[in-house]
Every structure is written in C-alpha cells, then in structure tokens.
Amino acid sequence: MVKVAVVTGSNKGIGFAIVKGLLKRFDGVVYLTSRDVARGQDAVAKLNELGLHPQYHQLDVTDRDSVAKFRDHIEKKYGGIDILVNNAAVANIEDRTYEASKTVVDINYFSILTIQELLFPLVRNNGRILNISSDCGHLSNIRNEYWIQRLSKKDLTVEDVNEFANWFLDGVKNGTFDYGDIADGGTIASYRVAKVALSAITRVQQKELEAKNISVNSMHPGLVQTDMTRGVGFYDIDQAADTPIYLVLEAPDTLKGAYIWYDKQVLDWFDYKADYYFKIRTMIK
Ligand SMILES: NC(=O)c1ccc[n+]([C@@H]2O[C@H](COP(=O)([O-])OP(=O)(O)OC[C@H]3O[C@@H](n4cnc5c(N)ncnc54)[C@H](OP(=O)(O)O)[C@@H]3O)[C@@H](O)[C@H]2O)c1
C-alpha cells in the first residue's frame, strides 16, 4: 500500500515548504494542491528543479465540487490518506466589511467542515491530521466571557463552534459587533475568530476520529516571512515547516487534540488569560 500525504493551499508559503520537507522525509507520495491550477503547476516545476516530484491536484477548500473531485481522485488512485495538513488560508489585515470578514471565516474555518465531511472518511487508521492555526487561534484572543466559557466546554460540538463564528459574522453584518470582544483592540478580528474556531473544532474532530487512532492537532507556525505577512517574520518558510513536519511524522501518537506552538511546545489552549494572543505591533517592520 502506498502512503499518501496531502497539503492544502501548498502552491506557496508554509504549505509549499511542508510539501518540500515531506518529499524529502516521508515514505510515500505527497500531494501539492492549489485552488489555481497555473499557480500549482508553477510550484510543482520549482520542486522538480530541486529533483523533487510531488503529485498535483486542484483543490479549492471552499468549493465543495473541487473537494469532492479531489476525494474521488484519491479514493480511486490510492484508496486513502495517511497525512492531511489543512494549511490553506487567507488573512485580511484591516478590512472590517461583512464581505471581507465572511471570506476570511469561510476560507479559514467553514471550509474545514467540508474537508471533515468529504476527506476525513478517507484518512486511514493511525493517520495524522494537522490544522494549521495561528497564535490568533489561541483562546486568549477572545475577550467575551460567554464565548470563552462556551468554547471551553468539555462536550463542545460543531454547533457551538459554528454559532461562535456566526455570532461574529451576524454582528459585523448588523453593525453591532463589539470589537472589544476580541484581544488587541479587535485587530484582524475575522482572522482571529476563524482561527479560534479552527483550533476549537480540532478538539471535536479528535473525538470523532479517536476510534481509528487518528490524531488531530492544531498549531501556530510562528511569524513567518510569507505573502500573508507581506514578508514580515522571524522564520523563513523552510524553518517554519519544521514543526508541522515533526507533528505529522515524528510526534508521539498520544499527542491528540492539542494546540502546539512553533517551538513544539504543547500549550494550554484553555488558558484564556495567557499572553499568547497575536499583537499587531509584531507586524511592523
Ligand atoms: N505567515 C505567518 O506568519 C503565519 C502565522 C500564523 C499562522 N499562519 C498560517 O499558516 C498557513 C500558511 O500561511 P502562509 O503564511 O504560508 O500564507 P500564504 O503564503 O498566503 O499561503 C496561503 C496559501 O493558501 C492558499 N489558499 C487560500 N485560499 C484557498 C482556498 N480557498 N483553497 C485552497 N487554497 C487556498 C493560497 O493560494 P493562492 O496562492 O491561490 O492565494 C496559498 O497557497 C495559514 O493557515 C496561515 O493562516 C501563518
């Protein structure tokens, strides 16, 4: 049986470096996927120049048909997935319109529900799923007491997390959202809400996949020099790929449903008073 690794949004940035690292270290085939075919093929060509040969498939995580086509392709060609890195994301630095907020929450959070529905059933026993979150995904980014308590529930459900995301989006739509409910003066609120939702749903997903001994974790890759940060960061993409690759290849298989920092430290996601939230001032060159 051929082992299969898949990285979403991997035509550039950290996802691209994760593909590159896996091609060097993973004993199986590695899928570079992208929403735009031309950008994906350019990325494949770059790896080919290094003597590395990923498989390629189009995959737009917000397009159900695209995810279904990818699922059918993998099912037919390899029968399953061993490693799935959910990396695709966008950040919209300061656009507080409803449309911009919805785009960020759709790509960074709601898409994971489509992936969960269509791709998780393909993940084989003992497989590993990694949701690339952010320091924006730590619970300390939320300052609303009700949601801190509700997202901390032991028996958290997908409905809880969806209602959290929709609480934000409805508030933005109606012009009633209090940005004081988000840390750091509500900067990049939509991205924080989406990433907190992603790290929260990771716990629900872990419970669902426990019987197959699949691990589902979320992590913060550090502040990394990519297009998303307009080149600001203390890591380059290859350095940033180190911890994600460790988590899907080497971490103990008892590490489950956890939130992991870029230095491989497992953090207490529930510690809402901690100082792990993102500070916009770190973006200033
Ligand atoms: N860089 C940082 O400092 C930092 C910090 C914390 C967390 N992160 C997280 O790390 C991950 C990688 O970020 P990055 O910095 O490498 O960002 P990036 O360079 O902007 O790359 C993001 C990737 O996601 C893809 N993408 C966006 N929407 C998509 C969709 N609907 N379907 C499929 N792919 C889509 C992009 O494709 P296109 O080229 O088509 O746009 C691109 O390949 C993200 O989850 C991000 O939130 C990054």
General description of the model:
The termini are far apart. Helices cover about 40% and strands about 15% of the residues. The chain has a single domain (about 5-135, about 200-270), classed as Rossmann fold. With about 280 residues, the protein is of the alpha/beta class. It contains nine helices and eight strands. The mean pLDDT is about 95. The protein has an eight-stranded mixed sheet with strand order 3-2-1-4-5-6-7-8, sandwiched between helices. Strand 4 (about 80-85), helix 4 and strand 5 (about 125-130) form a beta-alpha-beta unit. It has helices at about 15-25, 35-50, 65-75, 100-120, 145-150, 160-175, 190-210, 235-240, 240-250; strands spanning about 5, 30-35, 55-60, 80-85, 125-130, 215-220, 260, 265. The chain binds NADP nicotinamide-adenine-dinucleotide phosphate. NADP nicotinamide-adenine-dinucleotide phosphate (NAP) binds next to helix 1.
Primary descriptors:
8 strands; Rossmann fold; eight-stranded mixed β-sheet; alpha/beta; binds NADP nicotinamide-adenine-dinucleotide phosphate; about 280 residues; globular
Write the layout of secondary structure elements.
Blueprint: E1 4-7, H1 13-25, E2 29-34, H2 37-49, E3 55-58, H3 64-77, E4 81-86, H4 98-118, E5 123-132, H5 145-151, H6 158-174, H7 189-209, E6 215-219, H8 237-240, H9 242-249, E7 259-260, E8 266-267
Parallel strand pairs: 1-2, 1-4, 2-3, 4-5, 5-6, 6-7
Antiparallel strand pairs: 7-8
Helix pairs in contact: 4-6, 4-7, 6-7
The protein binds NADP nicotinamide-adenine-dinucleotide phosphate.
